[in-house]
Design brief:
Low-confidence stretches: 1-27
Radius of gyration: 23 Å
Strand order of the largest sheet: 4-10-9-8-7-5-6
Bound molecules: pyridoxal-5'-phosphate
Shape: globular
Helix content: 25-40%
Mean pLDDT: 91
Number of domains: 3
Largest sheet: 7 strands, mixed
Order of helices and strands: HEEHHEHHEHEHEHEHEEEHHHEHEEEH
CATH topology of the largest domain: Aspartate Aminotransferase, domain 2
Structural class: alpha/beta
CATH class of the largest domain: Alpha Beta
Number of helices: 14
Oligomer: single chain
């Protein structure tokens, strides 16, 4: 071979994907017989240390047990137990049938960008330009990932109040940065304060991630916490990633305030949101990032070179979701509200368990410190003995240990049965 490089030689030896077909064994590629090198030698250092999503791992364990015929109740996931409303489904079907099956503008169709800008103004009091201030993505997760690639690199620290959603830290690490936990305390109702932020801060801190209502704790940041974040961000010149995915899922008269609405914050805040939770559209993959144009321009580069655009006919459904009737959300929230209360009452009768009533989202973040078990041991016990899949709190950062997360976006009957089984394993609190 002329001018062959070492990489070419390695490629010739490695027969997939461009050489002779690799053999299949039991439905999987058997690369070991075809390669000189172990597959792991091809892995980038970026992925080598990366663990798969722990919430998806819980669901996978539950699925495997179910496949063995075991009746597992899976409360590990974050998927509303309702189908997307009919008028939204119809909008997608109509658009698809009318031939809306092509690539669209990378940032999203203008109608949806406009509907998002209108929503941000009406619901949140935030003004964004639909031309340059909004990018529509396949899920809020993708928007966060693109922003991580756009603003995080080696040498950049990202402050993440913990417990935190499982994907923030891996995203930061995939982008080459370092996530710095801001440990919150369950005995202080997971409150975020200037002191906690200052204690965690490093000279390389450039971004602060805010998630309210929070997954997994359900905490909704109050005025004093928002003020502390605003003061801290301005003093330390931080960019804010504000994940507002659960903004519509609030209980007991809680209200959502975006950190972007505080004085001096709009220019340093990127808002991440989506359709998965409020509109029961997890499988559709539709979300967005909104904020100041200079930041969005950088994100759009990553977006256009990765996914090109979010699915065309799904975007048409997104317009209908935002501009159509909203009563459905109230119905979802009232169903979850009543499950939240019933589940907490049932779990609070179990020995060693304390289940506070959460302020938002649809997860119970259950304090199991009274059992003396770690969150991993408790989650394993519940899966093995009660056949109930829950997520260990440690998956949300060290601050989450001593807790397990249960989704109450499940039927009344399943939740009742899950609590009863957990009670059989741990016993009841003394009367
Ligand atoms: C806190 C939080 N942010 C973002 C997401 C991503 O949502 P999606 O990609 O479905 O829009 C989730 C999903 O569970 C979440 O819990």
């Amino acid at each position: 071979m002329l001018n062959s490089t070492r990489a070419d030689v390695e490629l010739q030896r490695f027969p997939w994907p461009c050489g002779t077909p690799a053999s299949f064994t039991g439905g999987e590629f058997d690369v070991s017989s075809q390669t000189q090198r172990a597959p792991s030698t091809y892995f980038s250092s970026r992925v080598r240390e990366l663990a798969p999503s722990p919430t998806l791992a819980v669901s996978e364990s539950a699925r495997q047990l179910k496949a063995q015929g075991i009746d597992v109740i899976d409360l590990g996931g974050g998927d509303p137990d309702f189908i997307t409303p009919e008028h939204i489904r119809a909008a997608a079907a109509n658009a698809m049938n009318a031939g809306d099956t092509h690539y669209v503008a990378s940032a999203g169709i203008l109608g949806l960008r406009q509907a998002i800008a209108d929503k941000l103004l009406a619901d949140n009091g935030i003004e964004v330009d639909p031309n340059g201030g909004v990018i529509v993505t396949p899920g809020g997760k993708q928007a966060l990932f693109e922003a991580a690639l756009a603003f995080v690199e080696p040498g950049v620290d990202v402050l993440i109040p913990e417990p935190a959603w499982v994907s923030y830290s891996p995203m930061v690490e995939l982008a080459g940065g370092t996530s710095i936990p801001v440990a919150l305390d369950p005995d202080d109702n997971w409150r975020l304060s200037l002191e906690r932020l200052s204690d965690a801060w490093t000279p390389a801190s450039r971004i602060l991630l805010v998630n309210s209502p929070n997954n997994p704790t359900g905490r909704v940041l109050d005025r004093s916490e928002l003020a502390a974040i605003a003061e801290f961000a301005q003093e330390r010149d931080l960019l804010i990633f504000s994940d507002e995915m659960y903004e519509k899922i609030l209980y007991d008269g809680q209200r959502h305030t975006s950190i972007a609405t505080l004085p001096g914050m709009a220019e340093r805040t990127l808002i991440f949101n989506g359709f998965s939770k409020a509109y029961a559209m997890t499988g559709w993959r539709l979300g967005y990032v909104a904020g100041p144009r200079p930041y969005l321009q950088q994100i759009e580069k990553v977006h256009s070179h990765s996914v090109t655009c979010a699915t065309s006919f799904v975007q048409q459904a997104g317009i209908v979701a935002l501009t159509g009737p909203q009563a459905f959300i109230g119905e979802l929230v009232s169903a979850w509200d009543h499950r939240r209360r019933d589940l907490a009452a049932a779990l609070n009768a179990i020995a060693g368990i304390h289940c506070p009533l959460v302020e938002g989202a649809f997860y119970a973040f259950v304090d199991i410190r009274g059992t003396g078990m770690s969150s991993t041991a408790a989650a394993e016990l519940f899966l093995r003995e009660a056949h109930v899949a829950v997520t260990p709190g440690i998956a949300f950062g060290a601050a989450g240990d001593g807790h397990v997360r249960l989704s109450f976006a499940a039927s009344d009957a399943l939740l009742e049965e899950a609590a009863a089984r957990m009670g059989q394993v741990l016993g009841s609190k003394p009367a």
